[in-house]
Amino acid sequence: MHVRLVDKPPQEVRTFDEEDIAGKLTPEDVETIREIFHTPLTGSFNWDYDSANAKIRRLYELGKVHNWNSTLDVDWDAPCDMNDFPMIETIGALNGYPEYEALSHEEKVRFAWKGHAQTMSQFLHGEQGAMLVASQLVSCAPTADAKLYAASQTFDEARHVEVFNTYLRRRCGMMYPINSNLKALIDKVLADERWDLKFIGMQLIIEGLALAAFGTQVRTTKDPLLKQIVELVMRDEGRHVAFGVNYLEDWIKALPEQEREDRAEFAYQACTVMRDRLFGMDVMREYGFDVEAARKYILDSQVIAMFRELLFERIVPNLKRVGLLTDRVRPKYDALGALRYEDAAGDTLIDWGMLERPLPTKENLAAARVAAE
Ligand SMILES: [Fe+2]
Ligand SMILES: [Fe+2]
Predict the structure, then answer these.
(1) Could you give the percent of the chain with pLDDT greater than 70?
(2) What is the extent of the structural domain holding 243?
(3) Which ligand is nearest to the CA of 126?
(4) Which of 8, 122, 157, 253 is deepest in the core (most CB within 10 A)?
(5) In a domain, 40, yes or no
């Protein structure tokens, strides 16, 4: 067994060959790369084992019913044209940008797949972060219901890590390093000792971000495999956010004012990072683009505008519901143009009908195709 300790995430792009993809590596071929983090976690036992929150218990039950299996339920053989763009090209964020337009059609397609691999890699790394935080919530959540729920979420996140890892290896053949701003956000949530800040950071902010990014993919991808994976993952994430919002509401409102303001400021800072600083520039750097000019250009693009709408539409009503849209931070959200979403539906009311409908498994999708014919 080879173990390499690192003090920051690897910076290089990894590529996978046929053997990697076929899962034929021997233990000697695999290198374990570890980056250590420390956390002052304060945990609790709960000796009552009582169910105090019927909604949380119902979400937990639903998680057990909808426990899809990435090995059996995903159609890994769904075909995809690798000589075509991975997403609808008319909304490409760099369309019209001179350095991009100077590329040939083939180069643009190659560029797009690299950019796609970079985005999918952030999904993968983010899911790992979610798995680590969810496992912390098992220890530090204050009630018995929430511990059971967090335990089931931990397994959901493990499946998410599994599907995005497999997708990157099989479909993209490459993996990009984690974006430094995403890593900083996950580090903050993992290393903070306040359990409720972990809940805010993970269940509202990072999960809200994930839902916005997944929603953008579902609307724009041309790859049927990715669409299926993302729809399966979104079903779980919808439950996770519903759990966070419904659980946090009573706790946050009971905090002393200054502590609530601290959380509100944290949530706002996280939103600004997610809005502008999570777009990977690795591929543009690789092609020698002027990175800052390109960043400015894509921030004005249609696809990023779609992402931003989805982001604020998801997060802002949830922050309001749990009491984190305080008078002190409201003007800051207003400056971001985000306040108009404060009364959107968000996830504040659990839509049980949405959460309970049949999963888009391989079997269910095939049955639906037959029915349609
Ligand atoms: Fe997840
Ligand atoms: Fe999640």
Answers:
(1) 97
(2) 53-372
(3) 1
(4) 157
(5) no
Nearest in space to 229 (alpha carbons), one of 124, 102, 315 = 124
Please tell me the total count of domains within the chain: 1
| Residue partners of 305: CB distance under 8 A and separation at least 6 | none
CA–centroid distance, 113 to ligand 1, in Å, is 23
Mean pLDDT of all residues in 149-163: 97
Does the residue 34 lie in any domain? Answer: no
pLDDT reading at 71 higher than 60:
yes
- Does a structural domain hold residue 203? yes
* Gap between the Cα atoms of 136 and 38, Å rounded: 12
Query: Residue 40 — pLDDT band, cuts 50, 70, 90?
Result: confident
Q: Which ligand is nearest to the CA of 232?
A: 1
Does pLDDT of 348 surpass 70? no
Residue 7 CA to ligand 2 center (angstroms) comes to 26
For the stretch 260-313, pLDDT in tens is 999 999 999 988 888 777 777 889 999 999 999 999 999 888 888 888 888 898
Q: What's the 130 CA to ligand 1 centre distance in angstroms?
A: 6
For residue 250, pLDDT over 60 is answered with: yes
Rounded to an integer, the average pLDDT of 157-174 is 97
CA distance 192 to 311: 24
Ligand nearest to the CA of 239: 2
Residue 5 inside a domain? The answer is no
At 12, give phi and psi (nearest 5°): -90, 155
d(CA 38, ligand 1 centre) in Å: 22
> Got the DSSP string for 33-82?
EEE-----------SS-----HHHHHHHHHHHHT---HHHHS-TT----T
What's 286's domain CATH number? 1.10.620.20
The pTM of this model reads 0.94
**What is the reported pLDDT for 349?**
61
C-alpha 154 to ligand 2 mean position (Å): 8
Residues near 52 by beta carbon (within 8 Å), at least 6 away in sequence: 143, 144, 145
- Classify residue 221 by its DSSP letter: B
Residue 262 structure tokens:
């601290």
Q: Who surrounds ion ligand 1 at CB < 5 A?
A: 127, 130, 157, 160
For residue 208, how far is its CA from the centre of ligand 2 (angstroms)? 9
- What mean pLDDT value characterizes the chain? 91
